[in-house]
Amino acid sequence: MSNKESTSRTLFVALAVSLVASVFVAGSAVALKPVQIENRLLDKQRSILAIAGIGGDKLSSREVKDLFNSRIKARVVDLNTGEYNDSLDPVTFDPLKAAKDPKTSAALKGSEDLALIKRREQFTTVYMVEQNGQLESLILPIRGYGLWSTLHGFLAVKPDLNTVVGLGFYQHAETPGLGGEVDNPKWKAQWPGKTLFDDSGKPVIKIVKGGVDPASPDAGHQIDGLAGATLTSNGVDRLMQFWLGEQGFGPYLAKLRQQGA
Questions:
Q1: Is residue 212 part of a domain?
Q2: Domain that holds residue 226
Q3: pLDDT per residue over 62-92, tens digit each?
C-alpha cells in the first residue's frame, strides 16, 4: 500500500469516527434536554419554597413538586400595566427568554437601568403562596448585576406588600467568601421583617456599608453590606430599587394595594 493510500485511509477513518462521535453527542444532548429542563424547573421550585419558608433542602423531588403544586399559584403579570395576563401559561412562559426578544421587551437606558440588565421583559411570572385560599406571601422574581455576574433570585413579601418574608438568589457567579456571601444564611436572615416602602410607597430598603445601627430610626429597612464586597452589595441595592420601582413591580404592587391584595 502506498503512503498516499495509507494517509487517505487514515483520514477517512478519522472523519468517520468524528462523524459518529458528533452524532452521538448531538443525540445525547437532544435526549437529555427534557431532563435538564425538568431539573431547572425543580431547582426553581425548591428555591421558591425555601424563600417562602415552607420548604427545605432535604425534600425529595416528588415532595418539592407536590408541595409547590399544593401551595403555590403562579400567574403572569404585565409589568407595564400591573394587570394579570392569563393568556400566557406561567409554567411554560420564560421571562428571561422574553427579555432577549425586542418584540417582548424594552431596552433600558441610563438611569432607567438601575439593575444593569439592559432589557426588561414586558411580562413576568409571580408566585402566590396560599393556605386554605388565603394569601400568605407573594414571591417576585428579581435580578441585577453584581460584580462579576447577574444575580437571579426571588423576594417574598407578606400580604401587606411591604414586609419581607425572605430573599435568596438561586444563580450567580460572585466571588466565594466575598460577593458570594449573598448565600450566607446569616446575611439572608437579616431580611425577614424588614420593610420595603415608606408611607408614600417609595422604596426605602437599603444595603448599608459598615453595618446597620440598631438604634437608627431607619434600621427597619436597612441590611448590613457584605464585608469586602462593596460592588456586589451595591448591585443588590440597585436591583431592589429597580424591581420595586416603576420600571419593575411598581405598577403591579400599586394595583394590588388598590384591590386590597
A1: yes
A2: 71-259
A3: 999 999 999 999 999 999 999 999 999 998 9
